[in-house]
Amino acid sequence: MIRWLIGAISLCAVTSSALAAEPLTISIGYLGQAGIKATLSLVELPSENDGIAGARLAIEDNNTTGKFLKQQFGLEEIRVKEGDDVAGAARDLAGRNTFIIADLPPDALLQAADAVRDRGGILFNVGAADDRLREADCRANVIHIAPTRSMLADALAQYLVWKQWKRWLLVVGSHDDDRLEADAYRRAAARFGAKIVQERVFEDTGGARRTDSGVTLIQRQIPVFTQQAPAYDVMIAADESEVFASYLPYRTWDPRPVAGSAGLVPTSWHAAQDQWGAVQIQNRFTKLNARRMTARDMQAWLATRMIGEAASRTNSGDGKAILAFLKSPDFSIAGFKGQRLTIRDWNLQLRQPILLVDGRMVISVSPQDGFLHQVSELDTLGIDRPESKCRLQ
Amino acid sequence: MMNRSKMLCRVWLCGAATWLATAVPASAFLAYVSNEKSNTVSVIDTDSWTVTATIKVGQRPRGIELTRDGKSVLVAVGDDDTIQIIDVASQKVVDSLPSGPDPELFTQDAAGKVLYVANENDNTVTVIDLEKRVRMGDVQVGVEPEGMAISPDGKILINTSETTNMAHFIDTATRQIVANVLVDARPRFAEFKRDGSELWVSSEIGGTVSVIDPAKRVVTDKIEFNIPGLRREAIQPVGIGMTRDAKIAFIALGPANRIAVVDAATHKVIKYLLVGQRVWHMAFTPDEKYLLVTNGVSNDVSVIDVAAQKVIKTIQVGELPWGIAMARP
After folding, report:
1. Helix, strand or coil for residue B9?
2. Could you tell me what percent of chain A has a pLDDT over 70?
3. For position B301, what pLDDT does the model report?
4. Domain-ending residue, one of A267, A283, A300
5. Is B233's CB within 8 Å of A377's CB?
6. A334/B186 touch (CB, cutoff 8 Å), yes or no
């Protein structure tokens, strides 16, 4: 049974002069999940429009450009619930939109990609960080805007190694996604010369994330959980499931910084990012959406802008032409990160600098100086071409 | 803004050649450098190559230019949403102009009566009456307007928009957009050849300078930069300066820490000059003997001997030097 929440943004025509040629209309679908992922911190609880709010801003930006080129962009949103027929929803959306921005878990993303493939549908993954989607499970019709777990872990590792904080105590949650994140940190440690001195598992025993007297209990639990550790410089938390990581800072037995899922966090975007002209997009976003811009918002903004950029360069709304342009060496996009963003042609992953943030400030941006690469220093983040298992087809 | 050897030419255009003939001795000029982070303007004496004054201005000073009459320096202070007027004689801020929100770069008409300001935050170019110091109107342009230039005949205003990636051609009489030319990503700066035959637009993220035919309004050539040992992402062209005879152009390459010296006729790069870190904008001394460039990250200004095409000096200024304008003392 499919229950869809459909929200369509209709855009008024920019020009309606009888003499003017009909504008080229480019429709973009947004396929997301209903419901909000719980977080430990109340201030990090995502808004209901997390992600699509960025796409909406990019539609406005594309239309400002489009009015000079007689191009007009539209956005149609479908949300699926757990257990819904994702493939059916994707096919329905693809009937009206060649391009679909997908904010889905990995298996749902693959179902959607395979469902629209024959009709030339192209997906932009803005939600799933799973490396396998760019590796063994890569698809020729999926462009990945979200950075992978390995890109995020490498970005943090480069900074910690530069800081000479090379002895890591790794604390891993008990869910599958936490384990995948821990794999990325193990790989990063081996790659950049850090040492994981010990690993601990934080079991999710259930229970509420929010209680009226939670702090008292946590303050007793965390020091006990983190005591008797071998000498270490930094505690790395792998807790995508939001069970414990945000409880760690300032409560560890030894006075050590925390990084990973809490403390110093690697991310594609943050509301505190103000370098490289970013204040302009932060202001535009806040004006439109009455809240601050998240990583998911930025990923959806970038996906939508990439479609707009390709449409303006190719003067076309055709899926094949746009995909060919995005994959070509001519493509690059400006994303307020201080350098051009391009696509890895072997797995269609967007190359991007990664911000390291503490929740209030951008502490650093990776790749760090001195981590060199023969093609692009951005390829020091994540799985590189020679290691890739992806065979696009 | 800044690199306005242009200024001299414009002064020339308005018939002040006699003033030039009776001018003060060579190289006794003052360079005004906006320091984005310090909220100051450093004044450099080009005789002694020292900072002779530091002027406190508003928040986040960036675009900076001398008025046509040579009496004032205008500096856009983006975080205060205004353009301040520095009196050259007293070296003090004396007034401000009603620009739109977050002004960054601006340009004046040949008579020095109208100022056109790029307002990054609301996709407009604001038109200001410089004498009355009032806002005359706005022109809607693309997303994140930045670079500004006026054609030598004064008829066309160019604005570049950083996210739309276009050079907008605006008719200065009607204030309507008459053409849009797509260029590479994040166009930052626009500069006409003195004879109006070419318009150059730098694309910071695209890593190129587009050469546009202003009559046909199409890109006719693209200048690319290949520096051995430097990754492509680090090459980010921003400021452009051309000699009056249109023979040589200098292009600031941002975090590549180099100035490209380009044959302005053939569009071929002749050489790269190593300067400070994140080189941004530039200005010639009026005699064109020297070119001064701002190095944002190393907090200094490099002095280039134009004839020798060599860096001869580095002068420490405030934090994050951004723009530069040249005045006579």
Report:
1. helix
2. 93
3. 98
4. A267
5. yes
6. yes
